[in-house]
Specification:
alpha/beta, 3-stranded mixed beta sheet, 10 helices, 11 strands, globular, disordered C terminus
Length: 237
């Protein structure tokens, strides 16, 4: 199995000159914990995540003084690292707070290679690139969703399963009511598994019906949650 087999193709990105508030809002709107930062040509230049926004001056959670409020850390923290921390906690743009050391893979990278990379670098998501441009992203959620459809000893999705998944995603892409459902569609042995959350019961039913109409689909397993954005406090839905 390769990176291109399970990656989310519809990638939520942001540019480096957007504000920190805009980045936070976009992550909340799409219910994601991080996203690639791209330039005008669509090339990945960084990654921003919830972790980059935990300590902020606006919320009073920034570290205080030399060493970030810890006397022993102050003994070993260099002036450069302290300055970097100050910029990250007070900067107003994505460029100020993003991680510029981007770890990415190409579409043909073996899935085992991706997992080892995520473990060794302690990262939760890996952009997938082609000619330096982002074409997908793999998160831990992608791996977990794939795991739920595989029994021990079973083979990876067949070419037919990949074709069915592409057909399902295309059918949703043509519908204005359908959410971005890229990483939430997994196909195994002709059975379509639908994950994620929608705002209304009507959307949930339409997604299930839409998948059932795709040629080659044997069955549809519905794991979708219907979430009231107001009750749940998701600002920007």
């Amino acid at each position: 199995m390769k990176a291109g087999d399970i990656m989310t193709r519809s990638v939520i990105t942001i540019d480096a000159d957007s504000t920190v508030a805009e980045a936070a809002k976009r992550m909340l709107e799409h219910r994601i914990s991080g996203m690639p930062v791209v330039d005008g040509q669509g090339r990945v230049i960084g990654v921003i995540s919830e972790g980059d926004l935990l300590r902020r001056a606006e919320t009073g959670t920034e570290t205080q003084g030399k060493g970030g409020g810890s006397w022993w850390l102050g003994l070993v923290a260099s002036a450069s690292s302290q300055a970097d921390a100050f910029t990250k906690q007070h900067g107003r743009t994505v460029r100020d707070v993003m991680s510029a050391n981007v770890i990415s893979v190409d579409e043909d990278a073996a899935l085992n290679e991706v997992v080892e990379l995520m473990e060794s670098r302690r990262i939760k998501r890996v952009p997938v690139t082609r000619d330096h441009q982002v074409v997908g992203i793999i998160s831990r959620a992608n791996l977990m969703r794939m795991l739920t459809t595989l029994e021990p000893g079973t083979a990876a999705p067949s070419a037919d399963d990949k074709t069915i998944r592409e057909r399902v995603l295309k059918a949703y892409a043509d519908q204005p009511w359908a959410p971005d459902f890229g990483e939430n569609v997994v196909v195994k042995d002709g059975v379509v598994h639908l994950w994620g959350a929608v705002r209304t019961e009507s959307q949930r039913q339409a997604l299930v019906v839409g998948a059932r109409t795709i040629p080659g689909v044997r069955d549809v397993v519905d794991h979708i949650d219907v979430v009231d954005p107001v009750a749940e406090g998701f600002v920007g839905w």
